[in-house]
Automatic annotation (TrEMBL):
Record InterPro entries: YdhG-like
Lineage: Bacteria, Pseudomonadati, Bacteroidota, Cytophagia, Cytophagales
Species in which this protein is naturally found: Nibribacter ruber
Protein name per the record: YdhG-like domain-containing protein
UniProt xrefs under Pfam families: DUF1801
Domain of life: Bacteria
Length: 109
């Protein structure tokens, strides 16, 4: 999974924080972690502002972070995940004032 993120978004930087890999591009973008039951997920720090047109996000359990869970036996959604990573990169490239406008749009939907 780490290799996939780094290959899909080569401009991101990997750092280990809280014993898990975080991926940065002009700020925090996403991180990889596991649940208490051992499920692996990719958490998008500003997932609230991402479209989820790909349908990958699980039911929201936090205000801002959105998670994509990976389950054994199910196909890996490579193309959809690449698209979601690119959307997160584009969001981080926005100026802060543009991010606020995105946030307002997300809250009204």
């Amino acid at each position: 999974m780490r290799q996939f993120v780094l290959q899909a978004a080569p401009q991101v930087e990997e750092r280990f924080i809280y014993k898990c890999p975080f991926y940065y591009y002009l700020g925090q973008m996403c991180y990889m972690s596991t649940t208490k039951t051992g499920s692996v997920y990719l958490g998008f720090v500003k997932g609230l502002h991402l479209s989820n047109d790909q349908g990958l996000f699980a039911e929201a359990d936090t205000k801002q972070i959105r998670k994509v869970f990976f389950r054994p036996g199910l196909p890996f959604p490579e193309a959809a995940l690449r698209e979601l990573l690119q959307e997160a990169i584009l969001y981080n490239e926005l100026k802060p004032s543009q991010q606020i406008q995105c946030k307002r749009r997300a809250l009204t939907q």
